[in-house]
Every structure is written in C-alpha cells, then in structure tokens.
C-alpha cells in the first residue's frame, strides 16, 4: 500500500476510526469529528476537519482518513533516494506544505488572497487586535512572501518563504512511522 | 586598520616587557624574601618612610598579575582576530600565547613556577564556566533532546574509554611502545581520563562556528553530562589500580557500576536541591535587591563544592543547579539583578576560560614533565580520533531509529569531529598519583598533546569543514511574520491531528509536566507577583514600551530635539491608549527579552536588544521610513503576542521573557466559543435557510469563568481580552466578582462582521447537544477541560459575543435555565431554544 504505514499502526488507527464512528456506517461525518472536545478549542480545528473530506463530500471512509493522516508521517532519509517515477510520497516536505497551504486557501484557487489570510489570522489571534492592525499584519505578511506582486501568495512563494522552517519536524507525528 | 594592528603589537610588546622583568624580579625575590625581612629588622635605625613589603602581598599580587596578563592576552587575541586574520580560534591563540609566556617564565627561572595546578583549576576556574553554561542553557531544546544526549554522554564515553584503553594496551603488548611500566588497569585509567569531551573547549570552538541548534545542543549537552561518567570511571580505575589486579572480582566491578548510579544521580539531585534553595531565596529577597544577584553565584558554587565533598559529580551538580533555577530566579529577581547576574556570569566565565587556555600553554613549557614516547602519543591520537568517529556513528545509527527527526550524516561528521578534549582531561591527568602510576609524566605529556591537537588543529579546521560540508547553520533569529504565523499554525495543526488520532504522543508528557510545574512548582518557587505577571501580554507590552521609549529618545536626538511629533505612529499609540489605563497601575516585574540565546558573549548588552530588533531605523529623517520601520516591528510584536498558543508549544529558540504558559484559559474560552459559534452557524445554514430576526442581548461569560478549573485562583491574570458585558444583575451575586472586567473599554474591542451572524434557531439541537455520551473517549477526557459534554449542551445555543452586542435569540430563556444549571453539572437538561 502506498501509504507505507506499518500494520500495527493501521490496526490502531482503525480502532480509533471505529470509535469515532458513532453512526456505525463505516464512514465519518463532520459531526463525528466535532465530537472530539480538544478540536473545539483548537483555532484551526474546523479547517482541519474539512481537510479530511474530499471536495464536496460529507463522509470520509477509512481509506480517506488514512490518506490524510499519511501526510504526517515523519520524513525518512531513504525516501530521498526513491525514484521519481513512483511519485512523491504523501509525507514529503512539499506535500506537507501543500496540506498546510490548502488550509489557508479555501477557494482552492492555488493562491492565498488577502481575505483568506485575514480569515486565518482572525482565527488564530486573540480578540484584542483591531481590524486595522490585523489588516496591516496581513499586508506585511503578504509583502514578505509575494515575489511577483499580485498581492497573493502562491504555493511556490509559500514554499520559498518557508524554506527555513523545519516543516519536517513540525508536521510529523512519530507513531505514524 | 593599521593603527589597531600597531596597537595590538604594542600590547604584545608591553606584555612581554612588563611581565618579564616583573616575574624575574619576583622569582628572584622569592628565594630571597626571608632575608630582607630579617635584615630590615636588624638594620632598623631610623623610621623607614617607605618599605617594600613584597612578602605581605605576594600571593594575591601574583594572582592579580596573572589575571591582568590574561586579560591583556585576551585583548590582544581578540584584536588580532578582528583585524588581521581569523583563522585560529581564540582558544588556540591563547594557548600559543601561553607558550610564549611560559617560555619567558622558564627563561627567567629555569623552572616552571606557574603551573596549572589541579586544585586551582577544579575549584577556582572551572565552576563558573559550567555555571554560566547551564544558566543560559536553552532548556526546551536540552530536554527534548535529552535522550540522545544521555546516550552519547554515558555510552559514548564508556565506549571511548574502553576502546582507547584496550587498544593502547593491545599495542603495548604487541611491543610497539617499547618498555613502559604500565599495566592494563593503568591503560584503562588513562583511557577514561582522555575519553571525555570537554565543555570548555566545545564552547570555545563552537561559539565561533554557529551550527544549527540541535547539533550544538547534542555536542554541548554531551560534554556537560559526561562528567558523571568520567568521574566514576576515573575513580573506579584509580581505586582498582591501588587495589592491584588480583583483588578485582565481580563484587568490585558491580560496586563500580553501582557507584556510577550513585554519583551521577546523587550529583544531579544535589544540584536540583540547591536550585530549589536558590529559588526560594530569591523569592524572599524583595528588600535586598542589591545583593540578591550574589546569591546565584554563592549557591551555585556551594552546589559544586558540596558535591565535590561528597565525592559526587560536581559538574553535574552545578549543571542541574543552573538549569533548574534559571526560570525561577529570573522571574523572582528584579530586572537589574537579572542583568547584573548575566553580565557578571559572562565576565567570570570568559575570564576563567581565558586563564585556562593561557595556563594550558604556560604549563607546557616545563622540561620536567615531558616524556616522549612516539608510539604511545601517536597511537593515542589516532585511537582517540578514530574511536570517536566510530562511536558517534554507531550510536547515532541506533538513535535514529527512535528519533522523530533523524540526525543527518553531515551532522554526525561534525559531531565526531567536535569531540574536543580540554583542560578537564589535563586536570585529571595531573591529579594522578605518581607512586601508583609511574608513567604519570608520559600520560601528562600525551594528554597535553591531545589537547593541543584537538583545540588548535581541530579548532582551526572546524569552520572550513562546516562550510565545506554545508552544515545547517543556526537559523537567523529574526523570523519573518509569515514564518511566525505558520509556525503557530503548524503547532495547531499538529495538535489537532494528534487529537484526532487519539494518541497521547510524545507531547503528552510535556504537557503534563508543564501543567504540574505551573500549578505546584511555580507556586512554591516563584513570587506571587511574578506568577501573575507570567502573562504573555504583560511581558510583551512592557518590552514594547521600553523599546518605544528608547526609540523615542534616539530618534529625538537624531532629529535635534525631543519635541518632534510622533502623531503618525498610529498602531503603537492606539495600543497604548487602549490598554495603558488598566495596566498603568500594575508594574510588572518583567525581564527584558534576551532573544539571542547564543552562548557567545559578544551579543549581550541590554540595550542591544532594542537596536537589534530595529535594523531598519535609518538615519534619514523621512517620517515615512520611520513609520514603516515602526509598523513592521509593531506588526511583529502584535502578532507574536496575540497568536494563540498551541498545546504543543514547541519553542526551540530560547527566550528569557516568554515564560511558557501552556494553555491560557482565556484563550481557550475564546477559541472554543468561536468554534462553537461557527459550527452552529454552518450547521444551521445547511439545515435551514431561514434568516431569523435579530435580537439584542447581553452575553454571559460568568459561568464559563466560574467553571474554570482550579488552577487559576486569581482572576487578575485574565486580562487577555474577555470582553465581559456582565449583563444580568441577578446572577452577579453568585459570581466571583474578580472576574468582572469593567475597566475594559468596550470600544477597544473589535467589530467584526464575522461574528455578527444571522442566526436561526434550530428546530432540533445540533448533535453535540443530543448525545448522552457525546465525547469520543480520549486520554484527554480525564483531564480537566473547561467544558464537559454536559456543559457543551448549554453553551452552544447561548449567546457568546466577542464585543459589541450581537444578535441572538433565546438568550433570555437560557438565562433562567442557566441559573438552575449552574450548580448541577450532571443534569441532562435538554435545552430547547425558544423563539421570541
């Protein structure tokens, strides 16, 4: 299986999937995710829930569940030697960044516009900051990343500006190894 | 440039000329000092107006002269590095300078009168370096890599000792070294003292190279912690050598292993005990702020000496004392004391380091100790180098199976190359007993050669090697806004995914420990005022104000007078206006942020923090430029302070004023409410498409805050922006009034259209209201959360506004329902929203 997760982990995750699935219909809906209390206090919780569901669907089966989680596998050294014909593994740095990018980019136009960025900032920031301040922060953020001057952040600009950040560590969960 | 070169040379000449006659004169006087005293007494006929009382001041005078010389040497070396060429690391240059000085002394005396004696080294020169290193240790980084560090320190050192000793013995038996009076045990003893990586040398070389944090902490942590092993091995083999070969049996070996446990853990716990003592002391020193800085040094030194007295590991003791006390001491002490401690510690450490290297050079110029045995020396060098490489790769290979982010090959190369030996090895060698170990001088010579080799040669080649191998360097300290934002986003994402998977993960222990520490340990060891002011907002606010003030002055002076207007500093001024009134009466006991964690000593002034963070303040007086620069900084600071913390809260960058609060309860409330609200909206908008009529209502935060967990007994810490329009008077009686924040001006909040929803009332409640066991069982469910499933039911349809009055239905009805529910947590009241 292309996801490359060990058998025991798959079993464990399946039992977790099963316990989340209250309706017992082999698929998770958004409400099932929302039942997890910690997600409610996570600013990006809802968006992450959305990331599990493919475009336009309301149910995710186990395969889709695992597919999304596979983004968080730790990056392995030997995967750098993989031949390119088999395609990049899901947990490569580029794909991890793409996952994060899609959390910002709601309309899926491959660009983070100022409004989308504002929405994310608003979600992640306390209520003390006024709109103007938030707007100026958003403007500055875009300015830092935007190289072609279209006032949006494309995926390549996103990747470039985050090249110093240790994405492999920040977006990996060990037990998915 | 030329002038400083001349200055440098002048200093060197001065050094030589001044020191030489003085030392000559002194050493001559030493032999003669008895006689003048008698002669003077015998020849006393009249009143001597001035007498030469050398013998009175001899010892302190010599000490001070050497300190002075060391200072001059450092000055010359730094100037040389700065202006001429920067190839040899400072430590190497100091050793070479020590050779020169040693040559002078020897030339004057025909004997080396100034040697680096082990007691001097171990009691007077080493402790402050270790204390400095541990006091500024980036704790998070250290503890997150603690497993790897321990593996290298314990097993790596044992491996080095065993292999070097055995290989040398094997070669000796093979006859390569000629005739020596040495046995296997003595080889092992020698192996154990040469095996240890030296913290002083590592700091000295690595601080000029700036490799990435993880690599640095691995090498450095290993060098600190391996002292436990070194001490044990050294003592054990020393005792074995004294006992003699035949009397060593399994019991003795077992005792040896057991002694490791006792020495290492005993030393560590002793250090922790002294850290607690120190924290408690600084907690009570509010009225003697002048001397509270001294306690740090005194107690640290006490920790060292006490461990030494009890034959435990002294370095481990002082290390853990520094590591554990730094957070509390910095929180408790006055700002000025913290600055004092910092500067004094850096000064002492730097001075000691200089003197150590200088004396390592001086000591070499002594014909007595030099015994040259080509085979022994060359083989030692070879084995030390090779086994270090093999050991590092071996252990890293094992570790990488368990690490989240594997250690790269290049880092491993640097790690093995960075295994520098230093003065500790020399000190241990000099401590050897000549009677038991006849070849002591050979060992001393070999140790010195190894030290010179590693410090000078490996030090010189380290920088080019790092550049050639393209090792990942330390990240630039100034993160861009987008990086900061994304870092925080990643933390949230990771926390969410961990929760979805339902696994504890590594993070659980960190979070659990943080919670424990926040509630119990901080309560014990921190001043109450410091605890309150741990709030992130205060520290950032204070820092911002400080920077503004300093900025203001410097800008004003540039412009000619302080009277220029700063009306365009909109963001900054507004911020102050909003919060200045409430915060004015609270003077936080906050430390200035030292965001450079580098252990190098040059980036260090208090005011440098200001200048560092404003790189773009230009000298020209364009208001626009100024505004942009200020806005930039303000944006950074605003974002930094206002981003919600995630649970993971990984901070690899060590920063002094960002005390880690893992979960600010108010943030949690905000996020929760917002999430619930948006879920409700989306749920309603999908299920029905009717626009409800808007209604004005007040909102209640009280019972939420009332239900808050016991960890926050004092409400004054919650200035994190809960806008509270405490609405209904009837309920306030039941509510703890400290939670009311009437000083918070409503206008300071935000009117955000996102939070003025068009709400409809559902005809049936959302799923999280209906289920009896709504929560998927997870480990976190046992831990206190502000809301349990039962409470969830109540909250969702309730009106939770951000600031201004919003439109919601059914608030009035829910009021009465709340009253009933307030004290019963287990009622399953089905809340039916009611239309008005």
UniProtKB/TrEMBL annotation, chain A:
Domain EF-hand positions: 8-43, 92-127, 133-168
Record flagged with keyword Metal-binding = yes
> Where does the record place it?
Cell membrane; Cytoplasm; Nucleus
Q: Which Pfam families match?
A: EF-hand_7 (PF13499)
Which Gene3D superfamilies does the entry mention? EF-hand (1.10.238.10)
GO biological process annotations for this chain's record?
A: protein transport
Give coiled-coil spans as residue ranges: none
Query: Which N-terminal residues, if any, form the signal peptide?
Result: none
Which SUPFAM superfamilies does the UniProt entry name for this protein? EF-hand (SSF47473)
Q: Which InterPro entries match?
A: Calcineurin_B_homologous, EF-hand-dom_pair, EF_Hand_1_Ca_BS, EF_hand_dom
Q: Domain of life, per the record?
A: Eukaryota
Q: Name one GO molecular function term.
A: calcium ion binding
Key words, A-Z: Calcium, Cell membrane, Cytoplasm, Lipoprotein, Membrane, Metal-binding, Myristate, Nucleus, Phosphoprotein, Protein transport, Repeat, Transport
Q: What would be one Gene Ontology cellular-component term for the protein?
A: plasma membrane
> CDD domains recorded for this chain?
EFh
For this chain, the family text in UniProt reads: Belongs to the calcineurin regulatory subunit family. CHP subfamily.
What is the name attached to this protein's record?
Answer: EF-hand domain-containing protein
Q: Identify the species of origin.
A: Cyprinus carpio (Common carp)
TrEMBL record, chain B:
Keyword Coiled coil in annotation: no
User: What reaction gets catalysed by this protein?
Assistant: Na(+)(in) + H(+)(out) = Na(+)(out) + H(+)(in)
List the Pfam families: Na_H_Exchanger
Entry superkingdom: Eukaryota
* Keywords, comma-separated and alphabetical: Antiport, Cell membrane, Endosome, Ion transport, Membrane, Phosphoprotein, Signal, Sodium, Sodium transport, Transmembrane, Transmembrane helix, Transport
Query: Which membrane topology describes this protein?
Result: Multi-pass membrane protein
Molecular function, one GO term: sodium:proton antiporter activity
- Gene3D superfamilies according to UniProt: 6.10.140.1330
**Segment forming the signal sequence:** 1-25
Function, as annotated, reads:
Plasma membrane Na(+)/H(+) antiporter. Exchanges intracellular H(+) ions for extracellular Na(+) in 1:1 stoichiometry, playing a key role in salt and fluid absorption and pH homeostasis. Major apical Na(+)/H(+) exchanger in kidney and intestine playing an important role in renal and intestine Na(+) absorption and blood pressure regulation.
Protein name (database record): Sodium/hydrogen exchanger
Origin organism is Cyprinus carpio carpio
